[in-house]
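Hello,

I think I submitted the calcium ion job twice by accident. Can you confirm which output corresponds to this input? Input:
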Amino acid sequence: MLSFTLLTTTILPSAAFALDNNSQATDAFSFIVPEFILIDYGTTKEIQVAINNYDPSKPMTLSAVSDFANTANITAVSKVDATGNATITVSGDLPGSTDISLHVAEIGLETTIHVQVKWKAPTLMGDVNGDGIIDLYDAILIHYYYRGRIFMNADERWTADVNRDNVVDLYDANLIYYYFRGKINSFPY
Ligand SMILES: [Ca+2]
Ligand SMILES: [Ca+2]
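Support: Only one job matched these inputs. Its output is below.
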């Protein structure tokens, strides 16, 4: 399972806040957020955000921006509650990585969360048609795809690319054929 590393970014209080509070030691705001999160492609994840030394009498607005919204899109940002906690909802729309920048304008507080969107693990590598069996029909589908006779979506191409060279071609079909004939017992990925 994931283990989260806590990152604390300490920002000095803004001048406006320092004026009405002489104790700088207690009003130094900081974010408590995971430094890195992993999202399965096609799923959403809620990221818990906490603001240290949050004062509910001074409402703050949390904003979040994804550098590559096509990869990880922010679908919701909650209000900061009375204890300084908020939730950001992120969807993993394309495999890849991006940074999400968090910002609280009222106090100039900023931090960054690195997000990686990973492919969900295929149930069975080489099982292009998803029937649970690796056989000639899977190799034939790759032949059809290679000749432009059928379309494969990203999940199907991932499952078909058994040698992991990012191309679905006759080499993959041959490997599936060899596997089916018992000449190999695993794929070279
Ligand atoms: Ca199959
Ligand atoms: Ca390949």
